[in-house]
């Protein structure tokens, strides 16, 4: 039953946020050429999944946690996305 609500609310979120997702995707495309960041992560029961986020750093940045990278450089739009947490919205696809 909980899984049903997870899927239902993530679908509703994607539907209602689709104009915002499209706008952020377009601005990200113009800002750095690749608006999405996709990374393989390990989930529950060690099952791998693909994490989707909006890209906030340049394309050639090392794929590691921000606490492990020295001199973190955000793109201009990426800094805004991080501050407002809008870079996390595509994770609704992961549900």
Number of strands: 2
Q: Over the alpha carbons, how many angstroms does the gyration radius reach?
A: 14 Å
Determine the fraction of residues in helical runs and give it as a percent range: 40-55%
- Topology order in helix (H) and strand (E) letters: HEEH
Strand order in the largest sheet: 1-2
Shape verdict: globular
Helix count? 2
The major pleated sheet works out as:
2 strands, antiparallel
Structural class computed from helices and strand pairing: alpha+beta
Mean model confidence by pLDDT: 86
Distance between the termini: 14 Å
Poorly predicted tracts of residues: none
Strand percentage lies at 5-15%
Which key terms come to mind for this protein?
95 residues; alpha+beta; two-stranded antiparallel sheet; 2 helices; 2 strands; globular
In words, what does this structure look like?
The protein is of the alpha+beta class and 95 residues long. The chain has helices at 2-32, 76-84, and strands at residues 36-42, 48-54. A two-stranded antiparallel sheet has the order 1-2. A hairpin with a 5-residue loop joins β1 and β2 (48-54). The longest helix has 31 residues, at 2-32. The model has no long low-confidence stretch (mean pLDDT 86).
